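With this grant's support, we have settled on a layout for protein records. An illustrative entry appears below exactly as we store it:
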Amino acid sequence: MNTSSYLTNNFLIAMPSLEGDDFSKSVTYLCQHDEDGALGLVINKPHTMTMRAIFDQLSIKAINPEVAEVPLFMGGPVQPGRGFVLHTPVGDWDSSLKVNDEFALTSSTDILIAIAEGRGPEKWLVALGYAGWDAGQLEQEIQRNAWLHGEAEQHIIFEEPVIQRWELAGHRIGVDISLMSNDAGHC
């Protein structure tokens, strides 16, 4: 696969055929995709826990109590006990993966403290766990019609209602995903 066909900074949009799966009606933001595999965060599956759980576990005091009530997301089935912050702008945090000039994925405590103190990144989403694929695995899943993909948009990640993100990501690539069949075929 050549570099131009990698899907970093793309949405993976679950096809309706993934019903009943962890990724049913999910939108995954791909933070990294290369010859070694892919890593992303599901951006439309809210967790039952809020930021308060993380702040309490790490003994962090939130200056603004509303921040403690922001829901966490289920980022994927890999390492579900570990937190990841998808944010913009990129910033200078201890443990960050720079996706591009707009996005970064950070897993260090310093960003959580900054968020609690009101000096964190402008836009952020915290997820527990991530979605990961081994080398070639994602490409095989795309060939089996499990996923659509298209360039990500910041407003879908951070501003749009969670319940609408799957359909909006589909619309972003010109597809009304709600009208698609659960059955996929190959000629």
User: Anything to note?
Assistant: Helices lie at 51-57, 65-68, 109-116, 137-143, 154-158, 165-172. The mean pLDDT is 92. The first strand starts at residue 10 and ends at 14. The two ends are 24 Å apart (CA to CA).
